[in-house]
Design goal:
Helix content: 40-55%
CATH class: Alpha Beta
Number of strands: 7
Number of domains: 1
Strand order of the largest sheet: 5-4-3-6-7
Mean pLDDT: 83
CATH topology: Glutaredoxin
Distance between the termini: 36 Å
Number of helices: 6
Order of helices and strands: EEHEHEHEHEEHH
Length: about 180
Amino acid sequence: MSNLNNLPLIDQAIYTKDGEVVSHESLSQLPVICYYVAAKWCPSSKKFKEELENFYNAVNQPKKRLEIIYISVDASETDHKEQVSSFPWLNTAFNTPGIRKFLSENSITLIPSLLLIKKEDGTIIKKDCRGDVHFKGAPVIEEWINLSYEAMKDKITLNESSISKQLNNSTSTKR
């Protein structure tokens, strides 16, 4: 089971466009989660929004496989609220230290950006998902599901390796 409480941006609540808090547990059930970094003042964000919304709706039919969490770099809280009200996906609070830290630590300087993230720890699996949406369209969701699965499998392998080392160390110290 994913522990979304460890995600860098989910040290805060995630909201629907109506302001309702979304449980981290419900997000962990989805195969793919992306962060969408954008702003109302950015012409490229405005242009990409419609394409992303069409993509989001297409990949979530007949069942939900993708959730997007909007990370605002809007100029004001009013702009943030206007953006959020027009999106079908989720969002974070406006202008929190966690967001600024995440963007800085991951060198996210281009907006809009669409980032495929690893649910288990919030690391970025792939940065250029915007290009995928534009050039590959809805079928790319299968690639993203595979990337997410591989990232999860790598974590399981690392954990098994760590447990094995701990067991070996404990048995060698008992001898």
